[in-house]
Design goal:
alpha+beta
C-alpha cells in the first residue's frame, strides 16, 4: 500500500532573497552552508508562532547578521521541492537589506551579481529565485 502525502509530511521553510542595489544593479547576499561547502540564500524552518515572512526576516538576521525589509509583502515564490528525500514547501520573499555595510555576520557571506549567484547556488528552486527577483525589480 502506498503512502498518501498529507500536510503533516511536508516540511515548511521560509527562504529570504536578500539584496541591495549597487551602481544601479541588484546584488544578492549568499550565505555559506554550515559546512561551508556551498552557497545558498538564507532559509529556515517556519515556527508555529510566526508567519513565513517573519521567518524569512529571521533567517537573514540569524545567518547573515542583517536587518531587512520586504520589497513586497506577498511571497516571491511558493513551491514544493524535495531536499534530502524530504518534501519541503519553500515560501520565498524578496528582502532589501538595510544595513549592508555591517561586517559581523555569523556565517560567511558573499555579495554577488545575478550571474555569479546563479553559478554558486546548486539547488534549482533557489537558483530560480534570482530570475524572479530580477523580474520583480524590473517591473517596479
Amino acid at each position: 500500500m502506498g503512502r498518501t502525502r498529507d500536510q503533516a509530511e511536508v516540511h515548511r521553510e521560509a527562504c529570504a532573497v536578500p539584496y541591495r542595489i549597487r551602481q544601479k544593479r541588484m546584488e544578492f547576499c549568499l550565505v555559506a552552508t554550515p559546512r561551508a561547502s556551498r552557497w545558498e540564500f538564507p532559509h529556515t524552518e517556519i515556527k508555529k508562532e510566526e508567519s513565513p515572512l517573519e521567518a524569512a526576516c529571521r533567517s537573514v538576521h540569524e545567518e547573515a547578521g542583517f536587518k531587512c525589509r520586504p520589497a513586497k509583502l506577498e511571497p516571491l515564490d511558493d513551491t514544493e521541492a524535495t531536499h534530502n528525500r524530504q518534501l519541503v514547501r519553500l515560501t520565498s520573499f524578496l528582502l532589501e537589506v538595510q544595513d549592508a555595510d555591517k561586517t559581523d555576520a555569523p556565517r560567511p557571506i558573499r555579495w554577488c551579481l545575478a550571474e555569479e549567484a546563479r553559478a554558486r547556488i546548486r539547488r534549482k528552486p533557489m537558483r530560480r529565485l534570482i530570475d524572479l527577483a530580477l523580474r520583480h525589480k524590473q517591473a517596479e
